[in-house]
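Limitations
The C-alpha cells in this dataset are predictions for the assembled complex, not deposited experimental models. Users should treat interface geometry with appropriate caution, especially where small molecules or nucleic acid strands are included. An illustrative entry is reproduced here so readers can see what is and is not provided.
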Amino acid sequence: MLKLITNNAGLHVSVSSSEYVDGSSLDVLIRVRGLVHSGSIILTHPLCGNLRPNQQPFRSVIVDAESRAVDLDSLSIIESAVNVYQSSKLVFPKDFDDKTRADYAYIDSELMRESLGRYGLIRDERLCNAPSLKVKEV
Amino acid sequence: MKLELHRLKVNSLKFGEKTGFADGVLTVNKAEILALISEDPLLGKNLDVDIAMPGESVRVMPVKDVIEPRWKLSGKGQVFPGMISDVETVGEGQTLVLSGCAVLTAGKLVRFQEGIIDMSGPGADYTPYSKTCNVVLVLEPSDPNMDKHDYEKACRIAGLKTAAYLAKSCADVKADTVETFELPTMREAMTQFPELPKVGYIYMLQTQGLLHDTYLYGVDVKKILPTIISPLEVMDGAIVSGNCVSACDKNSTYSHLNNPVIADMLKRHGKDFNFVATIVTNENVTLADKKRSSSYAAKLAGMLGLDGVVITEEGFGNPDADLIMNCRKCEQLGIKTALLTDEYAGQDGASQSLADSCPEGTACVTAGNANEVITLPPMSKVIGYPEEANVIAGGWQGSLADDGSITVELQAITGATSELGYTKLGAYTL
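Predicted assembly:
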C-alpha cells in the first residue's frame, strides 16, 4: 500500500493514504526508517530540496508499505538522510510564527504534489488551495 | 549551426522619453515598461520600475530572477521560445545582447524564497549582478490570494518581456562587438580532432516543483527525458529559470544565457578536447525519476562515445543524489566525470558538504560554502522589502538589525555560490 509519512498536518488531511507524525522532520525520517526495516520501499527522496534541516520544519516521504525483505537501496538512502538530520540543528513547526510556518508547509506540499498525483494519493484536487495551506498576505 | 551575438556594451542606465541605446547609455522609458507588464491581469496596480547601478548604495530584495536583455535580429524563432515567443527552434542567425545590463524581478512570492543583491559594499563582491546596470521590476499580484503558480508565472513572464523589449528597442544600433559561434553537425563533430578526447556536458536543471522549476522551450523540465541541446540554443534563451531558491545557487536565466561552463568548453574545443554534446537533465523528487533520468543521461553520453563529461548541479539537498547518480553511472560506463557544485557545510564549515557522495566522484569543483555568514551594512536605498531578511532562506529572525544592516548566510545572496561557476570570486590560474 502506498502511503505518505508526514508531519505536515495540512498535507496529511489532503492525502488519501497518510500517516501523521506529530514531531520534527527527523521524527518523520525515523518513522520511515522503521517502515523500511519492516520491508517498505521509499518512493520519494527523504532529503528536502534546497533547504537544510535547520531551515525546513516539515518533511514528507512517500513509501510503498509492504512486508517484504528489506530493500537495501531504501535502507541506504534513509540511513544517510537520518545521518544528515542527526548531524544538524533541527527546527520544529512550533519554532515559527503562523505565516512563516504556513509558507514552509505550503512549499513542502508543493514539492510533494507532483509525486502524490503520480501515485494517485491526492484526495483534494486543489491541494495547494486547501485553506490550511493558504499563506495570508503580510 | 551558426549564431552571431551582437553585443552593445551598456555602461549606464537612465530613464527618458524613448527607449534606446547611444554611447554606452541605455535610456529606458519607464511608462512603456509599466504598460507592457501591466497588460497581465495577474499583476497588480502598484507595479514599479527602478534602476540599480554598480557602486550605488542600493539593495534589491527579494530578487526572483535575473535576465539579460536579448533580441533576435535574424534567424528562426525569437528569444525565450515557448515563453514569450513561438516554440520554433532557436540558436541560429543574429542575436542582439545588451551586455552589462540585466532585468531583475523583485517582489514577495513565498516569503522565505528569493535573494538579495547589494550594489556596493561587501555583499556586492558575492553577486555578479552588482556589476550589471539593473532595471528592477517591483511586482505584486492583482489578488493577494492568487494561486502562487499563476503569480510565479506572471513574474517570470514580466521579466522576460521586459528583457526582450529593452533589446528590441535597440535593434537599430550597430553592435560594438560581434561574437560568432559555428558548431558542426554531430556527424562532423564525431570525426573532428580524432587525437583529442571527446567530452560532453551534463547540464542538470532544478525541477522539483513550484519555485523550483526550469523550462526548456516552455516545457516543464521535470516532464522530459534527458535530451541533447546545442549550446547556441541556450544562448538564445531556450532554457528559462522558474527557480527561486536557494538564491545563492539557483541558476538565473541570465546565468543560463551566459553559462560559463559552455563558454569555457567552447574556448577549449579543438585545443584540449573535442566538445561534442550538451545533455540537459532534470532533478526530480521521486527516486524512480532520479534513477530514470540519471540512467538515461549516462546512456546518452555512452551512445555518443564520450570519454569525459562535466556535470553541473543546481541547488542542493536531494539534488545531490541526482549529481551522484549521474557521476556514478557515467563512471561505470568508463566516462570520466568532473563535478561542479557548492557546499552546505554549516556556518563553521565543519559539516558534511554534500548530502550524498560516491567513491567514483574524484574530481569535484566547489563554488563555495553557502552557510558562510556575512554582515551586509545598511544601504541608503532598498528596492523591495528589507523585512524579508528575517525569513529569507539563509536568514533568521533578527537578521535585519535596527540600523538596516543584515546578517545572513551567503545562501541569501543571489548567485553567491553559482553552480555554473558564474561568480567573480574563486581561484584563478595566472
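Some entries come with short summary sentences. For this one: Chain A has one domain: 2-133.
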